[in-house]
Structures are given as structure tokens and as C-alpha cells.
Design brief:
This protein is an alpha+beta fold. The chain has a domain at 75-160: Alpha-Beta Plaits, CATH 3.30.70.1070. The chain has helices spanning 2-21, 27-30, 49-65, 90-104, 106-112, 136-149, and strands spanning 75-85, 116-121, 125-133, 154-160. Strand 2 (116-121) and strand 3 (125-133) form a beta hairpin.
């Protein structure tokens, strides 16, 4: 009898701790801007407080779902893979390929936010992937330019970084 009571108390203690650990998001926090224009208006949101709870649950559920094998939080999208190899010196070659890409496409990457990533996949594959594209169409636009310099490039589905809130 005492074991059952202790087990129930311990379970209630842990479950209440999980409720406190979750972050709570208010809708008014989602629409704040750090750079306020000189002639900006004011936004007043009048709504049921339960909507804030639903938004918090939605954000929490999606942050747990959108993780790839490397525990990278993001959203499903596309990248352009310009290098993949598993040879002995693949790490050095991937660094050279990334440096070559940055040198050749410095003008595009400055206005397109075209980041490059070196990824490792077991059992020894090194890859260089470029960009964070939401759709295949976005990726195709730059793929046509990149494939001229890197003919072995192709578009791959990947988890991409969340886009900046201030961009389209």
C-alpha cells in the first residue's frame, strides 16, 4: 500500500515538472519588431487566451517533429549538393570544394543568403550542400547557375534552417 502511494506521488511530481518546463508563447510576442519605422502603427490583438496555449502547443510539437538524424532543428526543404565522397582524404576535399564555392559565388551569396554546409554521414561520406530553399523551384533557379561550375551538382531534399522572420 505504501509503495503504491509513493509511486503515485512520484508520478504526479514528475508530471507537474513537465508542465512547468514547457515554454509559453504569446501571440503579441510573435508580432513584435525590433526595428520600428518612424511612422509605425500599433497592433492590438484581442483574443481568447486559449489561442496562446494552442500556438505554444503547435510550436512545441513542430520543434520535436522537425529534426533530422543529426538532431538538427529545421524544416523540410531543399539544398544543392555540390560534392559527395568517401575517399580517404574526403574531409580535405570537401573543405577545398566549399572554399572554391565561396570564392566563385561570393557575389550571389551576399544577396541570396546562400550558405554552404559540410555534412558528414556514416560510414565516412563527406558532403557539401548549399542553400536553404523552401521549394524545389527556388533551388532550381540557382541550381542552373551553380551547375555550370559544379557539373556533378544536384538538388536534394534536406532539413533546412528556419527562414528569417523579416524575409519573404
Amino acid at each position: 500500500m505504501i509503495r503504491k502511494v509513493l509511486l503515485i506521488i512520484i508520478c504526479l511530481g514528475f508530471s507537474s515538472g513537465f508542465g512547468i518546463a514547457q515554454s509559453f508563447v504569446k501571440t503579441s510576442d510573435l508580432f513584435q519588431r525590433s526595428d520600428k519605422p518612424s511612422q509605425s502603427g500599433e497592433l492590438n490583438i484581442i483574443q481568447d487566451p486559449a489561442i496562446d496555449t494552442l500556438i505554444s502547443r503547435y510550436i512545441l510539437a513542430n520543434s520535436k517533429l522537425a529534426k533530422d538524424n543529426n538532431n538538427h532543428v529545421g524544416m523540410p526543404g531543399f539544398r544543392i549538393q555540390i560534392y559527395r565522397s568517401s575517399v580517404r582524404n574526403a574531409r580535405d576535399e570537401s573543405n577545398k570544394t566549399r572554399a572554391d564555392f565561396i570564392g566563385k559565388f561570393q557575389d550571389i551569396s551576399s544577396y541570396q543568403n546562400l550558405n554552404s554546409y559540410i555534412l558528414y554521414d556514416k560510414p565516412g561520406w563527406y558532403m557539401v550542400r548549399v542553400g536553404d530553399f523552401r521549394t524545389r523551384t527556388e533551388a532550381t533557379k540557382l541550381f542552373l547557375i551553380i551547375s555550370r561550375e559544379f557539373p556533378d551538382a544536384y538538388i536534394v531534399p534536406d532539413y533546412i534552417n528556419f527562414p528569417d522572420k523579416n524575409t519573404n
